[in-house]
């Protein structure tokens, strides 16, 4: 078995070194780690040259391609090089503990038509277009459970042979948001499955204090975080339309339109900015405009 990893990063040179170190501490470490650098400066490149590890390969994108672009570049690169399994990593989400790769790869290789494994997964409701939490009761005992999507920051490991043979990659023009759902729906459409280990999942939920979390807490939006909503809306519309999930497509139009009105309860500025980015997301979807379009507001 050939196992490689990639880590995507943007202007966080020290953090990427800490994450690489945790990958190297695994009982089953990758034989190659590719750092996909979306940075505008060369600070990350300099720190990696100082780190000087023979298995770490630096790849500078040359522009900010976002998590979507970085994942598409790395998966294509490593799959073409013949790797069987590929770890999908963020610079700020290292593995939970030193045996996690070994445990997940054992699971992946034991199951037929396994497209991806991870520590945490969710169910997806194609009619409503929403991602649902796996109930605690379904995580009891040993073994695994099949899910519909595994987020990129949840120790996601993808089948490299599947990528090579079926050309399954995330939509690189998403820039940011739901690139994991995008590739996971493609994986299932190709006849493969996604699995998580029940013990790893439940233990992680307990340690993070989320065992009794039944209703997602809605945090008050801020002008500095609302920019993410643009990509969520636009990219989900793209996913729903391409997969012919028309009820989910109509639902997001209605729900996000109502949210433009409801967010005025927080403040006039938040209501106005919500309206602006929502209408922009709608317009850009129908105009076919993808990629980086909205940046965070300066504080």
UniProtKB/TrEMBL annotation:
SUPFAM superfamilies: Nucleotide-diphospho-sugar transferases (SSF53448)
Chain ranges of the Glycosyltransferase 2-like domain: 6-128
One Pfam family matching this protein: Glycos_transf_2
Residues passing through the membrane, by range: 266-286
Keywords: Membrane, Transmembrane, Transmembrane helix
InterPro entries: Glyco_trans_2-like, Nucleotide-diphossugar_trans
Protein name: Glycosyltransferase 2-like domain-containing protein
């Amino acid at each position: 078995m050939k196992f490689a990893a990639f880590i995507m990063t943007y202007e966080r040179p020290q953090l990427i070194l800490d994450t690489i170190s945790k990958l190297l501490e695994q009982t089953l470490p990758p034989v190659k780690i590719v750092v996909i650098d979306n940075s505008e400066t060369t600070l990350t490149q300099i720190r990696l040259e100082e780190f000087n590890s023979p298995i770490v390969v630096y790849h500078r994108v040359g522009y900010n391609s976002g998590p979507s672009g970085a994942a598409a570049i790395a998966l294509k690169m490593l799959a073409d090089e013949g790797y069987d399994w590929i770890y999908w990593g963020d610079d700020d989400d290292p593995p939970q503990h030193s045996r996690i790769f070994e445990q997940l790869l054992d699971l992946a290789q034991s199951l037929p038509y396994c497209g991806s494994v991870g520590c945490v997964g969710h169910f997806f409701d194609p009619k409503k277009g929403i991602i649902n939490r796996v109930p605690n009761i379904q995580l009891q005992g040993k073994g695994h459970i099949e899910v519909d999507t595994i987020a990129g920051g949840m120790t996601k490991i993808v089948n490299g042979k599947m990528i090579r043979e079926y050309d399954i990659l995330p939509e690189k023009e998403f820039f940011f948001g739901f690139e994991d759902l995008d590739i996971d729906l493609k994986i299932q459409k190709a006849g493969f499955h996604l699995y998580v280990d029940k013990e790893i999942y439940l233990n992680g939920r307990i340690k993070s204090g989320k065992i009794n979390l039944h209703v997602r807490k809605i945090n008050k939006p801020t002008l500095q975080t609302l920019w993410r909503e643009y990509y969520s809306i636009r990219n989900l519309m793209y996913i729903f339309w391409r997969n012919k999930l028309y009820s989910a497509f109509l639902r997001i139009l209605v729900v996000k339109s109502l949210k433009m009105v409801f967010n005025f309860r927080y403040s006039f500025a938040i209501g106005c900015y919500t309206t602006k980015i929502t209408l922009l997301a709608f317009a850009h979807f129908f105009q076919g405009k993808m990629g980086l379009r909205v940046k965070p507001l300066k504080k």
